[in-house]
């Protein structure tokens, strides 16, 4: 930032906005008007997607400001570094030397991927991006081609940073709503049309629970919602407030701009911090002590008399990856491996609440890198959601387990029957599999195809291998399709590839012990690739060149289009509750039984 340091105002005046999506003229016109009538304001914080999803009018508006033809009226900070035209953020990040917000043009700053900034005396924590279980679980740490997806490491780093300071953060900015935020909210007050169980991201929820921000601001649900304050568990018991903001210039006239005038937590006494208005509810993120579950350690029950009863509490179901009650109720860093420790050195030493060893993170721990495939793969560098021995695996999704591999329901399935075939141990890709593991996975694939054929359906299988510093766990997606869609599959994949500027080439589809080696040779090394197996078992491959970008969900997008359900291309549109997943997995198990390689 420029200029001489000035002493921060006692209670800064803050404007907050939902997803601008490039509509900067609309946003800044409104901001300038509000600044005149109710200001002056000290800063504007934007959550949600800052850049437009595609080119056109909105991207022209962005260019007006970036080119200096129009002026940003207030110091403005944003977190959504993806969308059309967002390359400028990467370019400016590369230029900038220090940490802290990066100036994009005068008065406009990108806060960064994850961290805490001091703005006008306020501590502002932020996490950019959106939650995508595939890249998040795989730890999409080093791949800049998926800038919109959140990374496990960012989350760890932020949670650890916040833990270093006794003083609560004033703001937490996330793009997505936190899963479970509607827990304990009166039906009459909850925004219409949102599923209280499925809405929002589990990562945003976990972060809100860890950081206990005084204000949590999020966008992307496209409604305005200010939740009744909730009291955090733990020693300080201060209250948090959640505010969801709509998209800038939305046609439903939902509120997208909100003003606050908070006194920084550094200037508040513990008593001030603990003050709770009469409509305060218990935390939506914590299991409540009135249930049969034991209360979490080290936490006091909410102060009687200051908490309104809001009906039957059902804490904990928001966090779908961690279902064991003992894990849900941990108040420390749990089983998470320390981010700093992974990078080499953690200043917190023994006081760090995250794990400082990598053993037990996978089936073999962090094995020797030189170990050949026959000795078993090295364990994942961080907890992996696909390693069957990992405590983080979602067992309710598992359909069948064999000697080296298993079948599980896909998260956010395109249709019922959309499953994954995975190695039990942490192998990065099909091409890297030892012969026996590969052969067994192909037997599973054949069994699934027979199962679908018995219902007069064909199937599509695909794998997208993306090499990541944090490790990748191979998964072959298998999805049933109608016979008529099957006839068009090849054409659809080939033309979608062409649209994305690459060609799919036919490769041998060996299913025996030599198959992995053949695939490795076809890829031409250990690099990234996309492979699809068509209903007639023809395989098409694209070996991805270093630096080449391929949509993360390419295989699924084409399939959704082929089925005539493009709205299901994004798995997030297909999210299910744990109960629905369990039901679907049980039904699939029954159907698959006669074909299961473990049964025949
Ligand atoms: Zn540590
Ligand atoms: Zn794994």
Secondary structure elements and their pairing?
Layout: E1 14-17, H1 24-38, E2 43-46, H2 57-66, E3 76-78, H3 87-95, E4 102-105, E5 108-110, E6 114-119, E7 122-127, H4 133-138, H5 152-163, E8 171-174, H6 202-211, E9 215-218, E10 225-226, E11 230-231, E12 239-244, E13 257-260, H7 270-274, E14 281-282, H8 325-328, H9 339-343, E15 398-401, E16 405-409, E17 419-423, H10 435-453, E18 457-465, E19 476-482, H11 483-499, E20 505-507, H12 515-523, E21 529-533, E22 539-543, H13 554-562, H14 578-592
Parallel strand pairs: 1-2, 2-3, 3-5, 7-8, 8-9, 9-12, 11-14
Antiparallel strand pairs: 1-13, 4-5, 6-7, 10-12, 11-12, 15-16, 16-17, 17-19, 18-19, 18-21, 20-22, 21-22
The structure holds zinc ion (ZN) (2 copies).
Low-confidence stretches: 1-5, 134-147, 290-334, 358-375
Number of domains: 2
State the total count of DSSP E strands. 22
Category by helix and strand content: alpha/beta
Mean pLDDT: 78
What bound compounds does this protein have?
zinc ion
Give a short account of the largest sheet: 8 strands, mixed
What general form does the structure show? globular
The count of helical stretches stands at 14
Q: Any guess at the CATH architecture of the largest domain?
A: 4-Layer Sandwich
| Name of the CATH first level of the largest domain | Alpha Beta
As a percent range, the share of strand residues is 15-25%
Taking the alpha carbons of the first and last residues, their distance comes to: 67 Å
CATH level-3 fold name of the largest domain: Purple Acid Phosphatase, chain A, domain 2
Output the radius of gyration.
Answer: 25 Å
């Amino acid at each position: 930032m420029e200029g001489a340091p000035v002493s921060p105002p006692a209670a800064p005046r803050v404007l907050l906005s939902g997803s601008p999506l490039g509509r900067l003229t609309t946003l800044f016109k409104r901001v300038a008007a509000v600044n005149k009538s109710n200001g002056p304001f000290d800063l504007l914080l934007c959550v949600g997607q800052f850049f437009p999803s595609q080119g056109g009018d909105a991207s022209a508006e962005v260019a007006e400001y970036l080119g200096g033809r129009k002026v940003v009226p207030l110091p403005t900070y944003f977190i959504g570094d993806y969308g059309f035209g967002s390359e400028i953020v990467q370019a400016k990040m590369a230029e900038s030397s220090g940490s802290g917000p990066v100036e994009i043009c005068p008065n406009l700053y990108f806060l960064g991927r994850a961290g805490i900034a001091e703005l006008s005396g306020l501590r502002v924590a932020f996490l950019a991006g959106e939650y995508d279980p595939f890249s998040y679980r795989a730890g999409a740490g080093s791949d800049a081609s998926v800038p919109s997806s959140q990374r496990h490491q960012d989350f760890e780093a932020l949670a650890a940073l916040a833990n270093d300071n006794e003083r609560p953060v004033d703001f937490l900015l996330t793009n997505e709503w936190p899963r479970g935020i509607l827990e304990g909210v009166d039906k009459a007050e909850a925004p219409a049309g949102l599923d209280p169980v499925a809405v929002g991201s589990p990562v945003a929820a976990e972060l809100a629970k860890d950081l206990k921000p005084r204000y949590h601001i999020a966008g992307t649900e496209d409604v305005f919602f200010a939740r009744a304050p909730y009291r955090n568990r733990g020693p300080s018991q201060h209250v948090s407030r959640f505010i969801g903001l709509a998209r800038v210039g939305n046609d439903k006239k939902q509120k997208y701009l909100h003003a606050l005038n908070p006194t920084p937590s550094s200037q508040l006494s513990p008593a001030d911090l603990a003050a709770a208005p009469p409509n305060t509810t218990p935390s939506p993120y914590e299991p409540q002590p009135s249930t049969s579950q034991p209360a979490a350690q080290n936490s006091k029950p909410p102060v009687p008399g200051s908490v309104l009863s809001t009906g039957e509490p059902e804490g904990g179901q928001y966090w779908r990856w961690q279902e064991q009650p003992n894990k849900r109720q941990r108040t420390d860093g749990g089983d998470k491996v320390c981010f700093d420790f992974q990078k080499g050195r953690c200043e917190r030493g023994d006081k760090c609440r995250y794990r400082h060893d990598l053993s037990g993170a996978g089936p073999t721990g962090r094995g020797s890198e030189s170990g050949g495939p026959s000795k078993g793969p090295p364990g994942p560098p961080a907890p992996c959601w696909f390693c069957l021995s990992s405590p983080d695996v979602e067992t309710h999704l598992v359909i069948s387990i064999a000697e080296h591999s298993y079948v599980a329901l896909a998260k956010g399935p395109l249709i019922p029957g959309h499953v994954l075939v995975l190695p039990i141990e942490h192998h990065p890709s099909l091409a890297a599999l030892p012969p026996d593991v590969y052969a067994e996975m192909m037997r599973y694939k054949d069994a699934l195809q027979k199962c679908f054929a018995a219902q007069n359906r064909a199937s599509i299988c695909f794998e997208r291998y993306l090499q990541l510093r944090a490790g990748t766990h191979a998964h072959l997606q298998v999805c049933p399709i109608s016979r008529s869609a099957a006839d068009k599959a090849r054409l659809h994949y080939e033309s979608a590839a062409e649209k994305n500027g690459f060609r799919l080439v036919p490769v041998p589809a060996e299913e025996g012990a030599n198959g992995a080696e053949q695939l490795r040779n076809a890829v031409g090394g250990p690099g990234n690739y996309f492979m699809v197996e068509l209903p007639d078992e023809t395989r098409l491959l694209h070996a991805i060149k270093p630096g080449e970008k391929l949509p993360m969900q390419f295989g699924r997008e084409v399939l959704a289009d082929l089925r005539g359900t493009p709205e299901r291309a994004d798995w997030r549109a297909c999210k299910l509750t744990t109960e629905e997943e369990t039901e679907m997995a049980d039904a699939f198990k029954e159907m698959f039984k006669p074909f299961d390689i473990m049964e025949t």
